[in-house]
Amino acid sequence: MAAAMGRKLIDSLKSKEFRDYLMSTHFWGPVANWGIPIAALADIKKDPKIISGTMTTALCLYSMVFMRFAWKVQPRNMLLLGCHITNFTAQSIQGARCVEYNYLGKKDVAAPTEAKKTK
């Protein structure tokens, strides 16, 4: 059973349709886009003072537009949809961190700690 499934997988990977998919913008567009959510995920552990609220908002809106596009285009581009779901989630986390730091008083709490480091 597993051998038959393995053979079927290998056959589909060798197919002309799969090779055509790998050579299309339907594949390479989303692959190139993955840099944005990967960078956002890497920045989650960094200091919130470096977060740009304007850029974070723009990236959330950008991802919402392209999530809809990925769903509506035929055939559906699930790789692009997954990329933008991930990006929207990561940017939302960054946005929440930005709001918390800049508008909910966390900046004032962080300032004395930084003052102690400079002494």
Output mean pLDDT.
88
Q: SSE order in H/E notation?
A: HHHHHHH
Q: In terms of structural class, how would the helical and strand content be classed?
A: mainly alpha
Overall helicity: over 70%
Percentage of residues in DSSP E strands = under 5%
Number of distinct beta strands: 0
Radius of gyration: 21 Å
What distance lies between the first and last C-alpha atoms, to the nearest angstrom? 68 Å
Q: Give the helix tally.
A: 7
Report the biggest beta sheet as strand number plus sense, adding barrel if it closes.
Answer: none
Low-confidence runs (pLDDT<50, min 5 residues)? none
What is the approximate shape?
A: elongated
What does this protein look like?
The chain is mainly α. 81% of the residues lie in helices and 0% in strands. It has seven helices and no strands. Helix 3 runs parallel beside helix 6, helix 4 runs parallel beside helix 6 and helix 5 runs antiparallel to helix 6. The radius of gyration is 21 Å and the shape is elongated. The termini are far apart. The model has no long low-confidence stretch (mean pLDDT 88).
Task: Give the helices and strands, then pairings.
Blueprint: H1 2-13, H2 16-22, H3 25-33, H4 35-43, H5 53-72, H6 78-103, H7 106-118
Question: Could you provide a short overview of the structure?
Answer:
This protein is mainly alpha-helical and 119 residues long.
